[in-house]
Amino acid sequence: MRVLVTGGAGFIGSHVVDALVADGHEVGVLDTAAGAPRENVVLHRGDVRDPGAVRAAARGVDAVCHQAAMVGLGVDFSDSPDYVSHNDAGTAALLAALHDQGFEGRLVLASSMVVYGEGRYRCSVHGVVRPEPRDRARLDRGEWDPKCPLCTGPLVPEPVPEDAAVDPRNVYAATKLHQEHLCSVFGREHRVLVTALRYHNVYGPRMPRDTPYAGVAAIFRSAIEAGSSPCVLEDGRQRRDFVHVRDVARANVLALTAGAPVTGAFNIASGVPRTVLDLAEALTAAAGIGSPPTRVAGGYRIGDVRHVFADTERAGTQLGFVAEVPFDDGVREFASAPLRAAAAQ
Fold it and tell me: pLDDT value at position 344?
């Protein structure tokens, strides 16, 4: 099979390329930094927002794996034009070029758990409820966990399934949801099978170094490498699902090659929630003696959410995906794995 991977020189994209090549597929990479030549990989240096670059890269392919994106929470709302340009306009340009070429293959989109906003919560009185957006006054008082919007009682977080209501709570999240919508419309109009993989917190080798656009794992890893303490916001008890990048790459291959049609959205996660503090302390321990202890600093970012972790049943039953890399093994490897220069994709 001939597969185009947009963003194939980036963190996750490069691992997807590795997995596809290992399975014997021919791979084309479209990336602004396409990397070094390699066997069974055709490199196209270009921007996914450039229709000409996409048409050249997509000619004759059987499937497209769309990884190219600007990621992370960013600095502030001034980043919004760049997020919309890279993620939404880039996806629209990709789909328009595929339309022009009469593409009829499979399309796999790298989506994200950020489309959910907060995860799933249950009130003992009112059942499953949707928390209100985070309130600065409560956060300033260190009241981190959301309350029931109906009775202000405590809430218990639960794994979030794919049919949960979407509620993006920052610009990046809004653009990822729009990517899903654009791809879904394209799929319906062209009878193209579209799979949206909602990645949870991906970590592993080749993560970009600490920037406002990096994931929390890279931020902690960069701090340890620099001889500083990993700094955990709030109280560190925010729950996430940390999934290794090789598992994420394997999920992409499954979606691209499944014998029966596999469409819709899928949580791609380990299925085992951990706290942010768990990750920081595990990385510190894996780095060895002399590593500075984790510092719980309080504070917050208004665009963050408190708890979001995955229900992985649908990915297991329909996609055949179950994460294989144990957290302890993955973190131990990541503690000494080389990082890469930050990039937009």
Answer: 42
Cα–Cα distance between 113 and 326 in angstroms, integer? 20
Whole-model pTM over 0.85: yes
Question: Distance of CA 238 to CAs 262, 306, 329, Å?
Answer: 32, 5, 22
Nearest to 254 by CA among 11, 23, 84, 31: 23
pLDDT at 34 (0 to 100): 63
Rg (CA), the chain: 20
Q: Give dist(CA 40, CA 256) in Å, integer.
A: 17
Give the model confidence (pLDDT) of 43-102 as tens digits. 999 999 999 999 999 999 999 999 999 998 888 899 999 999 999 999 999 999 999 999
CA 202-343-228 angle, 5° bins: 65
Residue indicated by tokens 């009241």: 143
Residue 20 · residue 5 · CB < 8 Å: yes
Residue 325 backbone dihedrals phi, psi, to 5 degrees: -85, 115
CB 24 within 8 A of CB 17: no
